[in-house]
Structure formats: structure tokens, C-alpha cells
Amino acid sequence: MLTVDKLCKTFGGVKAVQGVSFTIEAGTIYAVIGPNGAGKTTLFNLISGVYTATEGEVRLHDEVITNKRPEELARRGMSRTFQNLQVCMNMSAVENVMVGAHLRLNSGLIAGMLRLPGVGRADKTCHDEAAALMAFVGVGQYVTAHASQMPYGALKRLEIARALAARPKLLLLDEPAAGLNHTETGEIGVLIRKVAAGGVTVVLVEHDMKLVMNLSDRILVLNHGSKLAEGTAAEVRANPAVISAYLGASV
């Protein structure tokens, strides 16, 4: 589904990502891990169009998508969440999810101003779909709540529901378990499996190694912006270079 070929990003004289290459098969859960400052979020931002690449290429299926804008990538089936919450606290919970479906809605100014019947029906359908997605991610009890009334763990799930509202084929999750307790982290893991079982390819950046090892079909390890290792959980866990990067052990 996704191919990254010799991708590079330089900020001034700092090489944040250096010649990284990998492929992700459709329907899998693929994790990107590495020590702090390894380039994980920068890599996500390059894939999702937030940053422009200095060199290299990204392909979604067989289409080159390098440096396309995030909204163009959303139309092609890519959606993402962010490490820090990006929830609209001045909106209701269900409205936050509905925002994720905006590319599929009729946003014509005249139709909206006149409140034509088709617009009203579309809004009702979108609301119902958003409510169903909230139930799917486990926050259905907050359908009538304001976003500001929701606890942090529920807001993390709300962001995933909003990303799913775009009906993505590829979902990028940046630190989905950040700030969650042990129980909440386990629940996020169950949710990610449900999303993948529904046919969505999932790519995640995550620091919780137990979650990563239990979930991932394949794992990419970055260190200082470069690809250090790639493989299954068992292969990565036993790789001496990975152990050295994480623990500072001599190889």
C-alpha cells in the first residue's frame, strides 16, 4: 500500500530523516519506533504532507504522493492523528467527529444558506455515522456531550473516530497511547486491532513497547534519522543494534 524510498528531510544543517526506505503491505499494522529524537514524527509528517521532503519519494499504491498537501492525501485515503490532542474544545464531541467527514459533504454556500432538503438529510446522515463511529471506538456514551466534558483517554479515542470518519484506507496514528494508563493503553490496542480487522492499514508511532510488540505485524526502528532495523517483533526484539540504541549496550 505504501512505499517510502530514500526519504530525507533536512532542517538547516540537521538531517532529521536520512535515506529511509520501507514498504507497508495493505491490511497490516506497521509500527515505527526509536529513541527520542530518532525522527519518527518527522517521518510521519513527511508521509502525511505536513512537511516537504528534501529528497526521496513516497508512493501510495503506485501513485507518487511526495509533497502533496494533507487535504489531497485525505482524498486519496490517508488520515492521521497527532501526538498532541487536536480536538476542537468549542464543539460537541459528535461535531468533532463530523469534521472528519467534511470532504464527503456538500459544502456549497448557496445550498447551506437556503438549508435545502438535501443538505439537511446529509447532515443527519453524517451525524448518525459520527455517533456510530463514537460507539465503535468506545466513547458512545459521550454522543450528547461537549468535547470539553470528556476525559483525556476518551479524547484520544475521539480523535481516532474523527480520522475514521474520512473513511481512510491508510491510518497514521502518532502516539495513540501517550498519556494513557495501563488499562486505557490495553483498550487502545484492542481498538487498533478492530480498525485493522475492518480493512484499514494502520501505521503507528509509539513509545509503549509492550503495545507495539503485541500489535505489530512489522516494525521499523529509527535512530538519529536513519533506518536501524526492520522486521517482526521477535526479530526486532533480538536485534543487537536495537538493544544498543535503546539501552546503550555495546554491540
* Element pattern in H and E: EEEHEEHEHHHHEHEHEEHH
Sheet with most strands: strand arrangement: 6-7-8-3-9-10
CATH superfamily of the largest domain: P-loop containing nucleotide triphosphate hydrolases
- Give a count of the beta strands, DSSP E runs of length 2 or more: 10
Structure description:
This protein is an alpha/beta fold. The protein has two domains: 1-77 and 168-251, P-loop containing nucleotide triphosphate hydrolases (Rossmann fold), CATH 3.40.50; 89-166, no CATH class. It has helices spanning 40-47, 70-75, 93-99, 109-114, 117-137, 152-164, 182-197, 209-215, 233-237, 240-247, and strands spanning 2-11, 14-24, 29-33, 55-60, 63-64, 78-80, 170-174, 201-205, 218-223, 226-231. The strands form two sheets. Strands 6-7-8-3-9-10 form a six-stranded mixed β-sheet, sandwiched between helices. Strands 2-1-4-5 form a four-stranded antiparallel β-sheet, with helices on one face. Strand 4 and strand 5 (63-64) form a beta hairpin. Helix 3 packs across helix 5 and helix 3 (93-99) packs parallel to helix 6 (152-164). The protein is globular, with a radius of gyration of 19 Å. The chain starts with a strand and ends with a helix.
